[in-house]
Design goal:
With about 220 residues, the protein is an alpha+beta fold. Helix content is about 45%, strand content about 15%.
């Protein structure tokens, strides 16, 4: 049955307008993005098949062009549209915490970092440089690594912090394995960075570890 034949209250687009986007399932949101299904399959059914194939919405959104285009009804045009949506979301989140105190919008920071780093197939260590009022100066990917680790050099981070005239910093890195649980090496590194930056009067406010479905805050864990 085509979506146009469904009761109006059950159609994803009408449901979104009436109840808001948060009321929709992942499959319904994806169906609105897809707009149409394929022969014999509605957009919602196609969306469910895609989520089943990739395992989650996150994995679907971070699939590469080859993986995405291998499925029926998908192709470079849909892939480009999805990447554009992801980039717009990332930029909107970046704008949200760029103007005010970053500590006033912790969820925006989490969402931005998850979008920015969660899809990387290799480990990335990033820094958010902040002024004295905890407003964002710039966010930089400082070190890239392999599937399991990235070499981080405190001296280079101190140099970048001084270059940006930062008063505080927040660090973040992803775990391509999917788990967001900090390792003992992550804890040792964070303390080393905190001590190195303290020598030049720069505070470390937090360190986030980004997994596939979770973001862990060192500050919330009492590890900073």
């Amino acid at each position: 049955m085509a979506i146009s034949d469904w009761p109006e209250a059950e159609r994803p687009r009408e449901k979104l307008i009436e109840k808001g986007a948060a009321a929709l399932s992942d499959a319904e949101l994806l169906a609105i993005f897809l707009r149409t299904g394929v022969t014999g399959v509605s957009a919602v059914e196609l969306a469910r098949n895609l989520l089943l194939h990739f395992g989650s919405l996150t994995k679907l959104c971070t699939a590469n062009l080859q993986e995405f285009s291998a499925l029926p009804g998908m192709g470079p045009a849909k892939f480009a549209q999805l990447q554009a949506v992801m980039e717009m979301a990332k930029r909107a989140l970046a704008e949200e915490f760029k103007c005010g105190d970053i500590m006033d919008s912790p969820q925006s920071v989490r969402n931005y970092l998850r979008l920015s780093l969660g899809s990387k197939p290799y480990e990335v260590f990033a820094g958010i440089f902040l002024d004295a009022r905890h407003r964002t100066i710039i966010t930089e990917e400082l070190f890239n690594g392999t599937l399991t680790q990235a070499s981080v050099y405190p001296r280079e981070i101190v140099k970048r912090a001084l270059y940006h005239n930062a008063a505080a910093m927040i660090f973040a890195h992803n775990h391509p394995s999917g788990t967001a649980e900090p390792s003992r090496a992550d804890e040792i590194l964070t303390q080393s960075l905190k001590q190195a930056l303290a020598l030049v009067d720069i505070k470390v406010l937090d360190h986030f570890v980004i997994g596939s479905d979770e973001v862990v805050s060192f500050a919330e864990r009492g590890l900073i």
